Amino acid sequence: MSLRPLSDWKRRNRLKKKQIIAVIFIFLLLFTAVMAPAQEILTAEKYFDEISDRYGKVQDYEANITITKGDTVMKGVIYYKSPNLLRIDFTEPKDQVLVTNGEELTIYIPKYEVIMKQKLRKRSNAAVASMASKQGLTFLKRNYGIGYLIGPSPVPLDEKSKEKVIKLKLTSRSNIEGFRQIILSIGENGLIRRIKAVTINYDELVFDFTDIKINQNIPDTRFDYDAPAYANVFNNFLFESEQ
Question: CATH says 46-235 is which class?
């Protein structure tokens, strides 16, 4: 019996297998080329830029704010209007007020009937006005290295929280002033949900923003503040003003 037909069959079978493998390989290449843009990993800096651009379209916002430092917790409502108007009306401590126009900071402390005023330095305006603003984010990018805390995928805000956020880790390029490290937690709405900052002295400050409302046409008069006439005024309580 001739073995030629059998060898021809084996040869054709091997050829078919090679052809099938080649088709699968080409298909995988094409599939990878199509899917690559959708699967491209967004770098932390690009993601930060997207958030910054989003805040660039925010003319004003209002939110509930909670500030935590150790066992001390302060709560209130924060108002911001571009480029540098900021006001916080506190409910804890009750009736305390913080307001700034980017040039002067005023804090009223009703418990001690004291008004504290500070002429701001030019380089600190953006940081003081608000980290959660276009100006504040520009300041952060200029002075901090940016990376993901865990990765580009959403993670729980807290260990047992159902709320998901993307966390960015910002590391200071200089420990002369400001914060050593800042963790920004970005919510599903693309807005900053939490700022966790570590000071030069390793104190931790946490700013939580909830119930954020943007572009509500907040009037400039919201940032006017008439301090009580009976309160004692202390000027430049942080540092000497620039001449």
Answer: mainly beta
